[in-house]
Amino acid sequence: MINLFQKTSTEINIDIAKRMVLLRKRKKLTQKELSAKADVSLGSLKRFEQSGEISLQSFTKLAIALEVEGELENLFSEVPFDSIEEVLNGQTK
After folding, report:
1. Nearest to 17 by CA among 62, 61, 75
2. Cα 83 from Cα 44, distance rounded (Å)
3. For 2-28, how does the pLDDT look when each residue is reduced to its tens digit (9 = 90+)?
4. What does the DSSP 8-state code read for residue 82?
5. Backbone phi, then psi, for 4, in 5-degree steps?
6. How confident is the model at residue 79 (pLDDT cuts 50, 70, 90)?
7. How far apart are CA 27 and CA 78, in angstroms?
8. Of 6, 8, 16, 9, whose CA–CA distance to 50 is shortest?
9. Mean pLDDT across the stretch 37-49?
10. Where are the alpha helices (DSSP H) in 1-93?
11. Does domain 9-69 have CATH number 3.30.2310.20?
């Protein structure tokens, strides 16, 4: 079944970038300060905040600098099964 309300990858990335901007501001960090703390170029940070585009490596560095790396470490750790077939397939690995 097609989900007509499913977000695109770009929409999801922009939403994540917006949350990261709010977190950066909550911690009272400028873009320049965060880029230095995370060892990510200022241009990459600005592009991410505007478009949601960034490498996974740089994204992880930003999360570490903002002290939210645990959120990434837990990503996909508790994904529920969609079917009994998935349960059975998961047990054979």
Report:
1. 62
2. 40
3. 677 899 999 999 999 999 999 999 999
4. S
5. -70, -15
6. confident
7. 29
8. 16
9. 98
10. 9-26, 31-38, 42-51, 56-65, 69-73, 84-91
11. no
